[in-house]
Amino acid sequence: MSSFANSLVPNLIGIVAILIVISSIKSLLSSKRKGNSRFISKHPLTAPEQEFYFILSEAVPDLLILPQVAFSRFLETQGGNDKENFSLFATARQKVVDYLICDKSFNIICAIELDDRTHNRHKDSKRDAILKESGITCLRFKVNNSPP
After folding, report:
1. Beta bridge pairs of residue 75
2. Alpha-carbon Rg of the chain, whole angstroms?
3. Domains in the chain: how many in total?
């Protein structure tokens, strides 16, 4: 580990501990206000996504599993003028992949999509085409889930 990482780890542990305490206190105090809030927190992954995440973690322990990654975080456009690139990127920027699998250097290995009752084949084919054009393999897994 680099000296930068060695000096950073103790600080990060302290910061995370403080954030957990603050978050717990805030959660207790704000539970009475949730009825008036326009935004409320929710789980970042659905139940099937959470279950698949833990299965995947055990299956590929040496790889990084990044859930719910926006295309804008791992794709960019090239070759056109600014207007063309902006227009092209607009087709991808609001798309999200269920999981992005990377090696320890954050090189992309593949994308994974879970197909449940909410998936739209037409939208999925556009997503797959963008990933294919960028050289990223997309693996799809069917999941059965009951209505929430």
Report:
1. none
2. 19
3. 2
| Domain assignment of residue 9, given as a range | 1-41
Which of 94, 103, 84, 92 shows the shortest CA–CA distance to 131? 92
Write the single-letter amino acid at 100. Answer: L
Q: Cβ(48)–Cβ(116) under 8 Å?
A: yes
Q: List, for residues 20-29, the tens digit of each pLDDT value.
A: 878 777 776 6
CB atoms within 10 A of CB 28: 9
Instruction: Let me know whether 68 and 27 are in one domain.
Output: no
Place of tokens 């996504």: 49
pLDDT for the residue numbered 30 = 62
Alpha helices in 31-102 (DSSP H): 47-59, 82-90
What is the spatial distance between Cα 8 and Cα 43, in angstroms, rounded to a whole number?
Answer: 28
